């Protein structure tokens, strides 16, 4: 099982999603997801 990480919207910086990440990956996870606060699909990045 991987490490649990939070995904934050790059537009409004709200933390909308959480997911599991493979522990062998070193770079930050980036996914296009729907932001409930902005109302559009935006890029969500892994937060610390």
TrEMBL record:
GO terms for cellular component: ribosome. SUPFAM superfamilies: Zn-binding ribosomal proteins. This is Large ribosomal subunit protein bL33. HAMAP family: Ribosomal_bL33. It comes from Aquibacillus rhizosphaerae. Keywords: Ribonucleoprotein, Ribosomal protein. It comes from the Bacteria. Pfam families: Ribosomal_L33 (PF00471). Belongs to the bacterial ribosomal protein bL33 family.
């Amino acid at each position: 099982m991987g490490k649990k990480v939070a995904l934050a919207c790059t537009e409004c910086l709200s933390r909308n999603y959480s997911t599991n990440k493979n522990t062998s990956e070193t770079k930050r996870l980036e996914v296009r997801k729907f932001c409930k606060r902005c109302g559009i699909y935006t890029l969500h990045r892994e937060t610390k």
